[in-house]
Amino acid sequence: MSNEVTIPLLPCPSIDDIVAFYGVLGFRTTYQQRKPYPCVGLEREDLNLQFFEIAGFDPEQSYGSCLVITPDIAELHRAFAAGMRAAYGKVLVSGIPRMTRPRVRKNADGLGGFSVIDPGGNWIRVFQKPATVPAPAPPPAGRLAKVLASAVVLADSKGDVAQAVRILDSALTRPQAGDDPVTHVEVLVYRAELAMALGDRETATRMLASAGHVTLNAGETERAAPAFEIAADLAAALR
Questions:
Q1: Residue ranges for the chain with pLDDT beneath 50
Q2: Omega prior to 36 cis, within 30 of 0
Q3: Cα–Cα distance between 27 and 47 in angstroms, integer?
Q4: DSSP, res 116
Q5: d(CA 210, CA 27)
Q6: DSSP 91
Q7: What are the domain boundaries of the chain?
Q8: Which residues, other chains included, contact 92 with Cβ-Cβ below 8 Å and sequence gap of 6+?
Q9: CB 140 within 8 A of CB 146
Q10: How many CB atoms lie within 10 A of CB 143?
């Protein structure tokens, strides 16, 4: 047999909250019922998700997760971010729900990915579809790049934000000659993003200020532009 379709069925405390949130991301409701149990089906182009409601369910304790493979993670992230800005005035980067940024994952052969953590605490993990079978990604070069790559795996893949914070803070308190200033900016901005995820606005503000004071030449400023774009979104969320 071929052409089978698999659709994940994920838990949540309220299908109404799920419908509202995914509507912001451009999904439409394809099916909904209240009896014999509340559940809902959602669709955005070829992306299909279904959810069932559990009274008293705690999103913080959810292990719900699924993978989404797409040929263009940047396009999908931009669409989700635009929907969030239109609905909430900002990209959600803290609490539940929230969305992480597209980043290379060393535990996924170097493919880029980002995650949406929805109102049910489910991690919708979006990965870049490789054009061919990917060769193993080369290890990141430089001390800070290695630390950043490990932190991304811990926080964005495993969901262990606290451990990612610990290794970033350890690296930031031990600056070394030869550290790439652009990577330094990226580490500071990512540390600010994780602080936001933990509700630590003071640390987020301090990290963004530090990122703005890293000395960069013209070429380095250009390379750091994506990190400063993220910093601008985080600063907006802090206001």
A1: 133
A2: yes
A3: 9
A4: E
A5: 38
A6: -
A7: 9-128, 143-238
A8: 84, 98, 99, 237
A9: yes
A10: 16
pTM (global) more than 0.85: no
Do residues 62 and 120 touch, judged by C-beta distance below 8 A?
A: yes
Note the pLDDT tens digit of each residue in 11-30.
999 999 999 999 999 999 99
Write down the pLDDT at residue 159.
81
Contacts of 108 (CB under 8 A, 6+ apart): 127, 157
For the stretch 205-212, contacts whose Cβ atoms lie closer than 8 Å and that sit 24 or more positions apart, written own/partner, are 205/238, 208/234, 208/235, 208/238, 211/185
What is the dotted CATH code of the domain comprising 9-128?
3.10.180.10
User: From the DSSP assignment, how many helices (H) and strands (E) are in the chain?
Assistant: 8, 9
User: How many other C-beta atoms can be found within 10 angstroms of the C-beta atom of residue 20?
Assistant: 12
**What residues are paired with 9 via a beta bridge?**
50
Maximum pairwise Cα distance, the chain: 64
Per-residue pLDDT tens digits for 112-149: 789 999 999 999 999 988 765 455 555 567 889 889 98
Burial group, residue 215, by CB count within 10 angstroms (0-12, 13-18, 19+): exposed
What are the distances in angstroms from CA 13 to CA 55, 78, 94, 108, 117?
A: 6, 28, 19, 31, 14
- Can you say how many angstroms the Cα of residue 31 is from the centroid of all Cα atoms in its chain? 27
Distance of alpha carbon 139 from alpha carbon 110, whole angstroms: 9
- How many angstroms separate the first and last alpha carbons of the chain? 54
CATH, domain 143-238, list 1.20.120, 2.10.110, 2.30.30, 1.25.40: 1.25.40
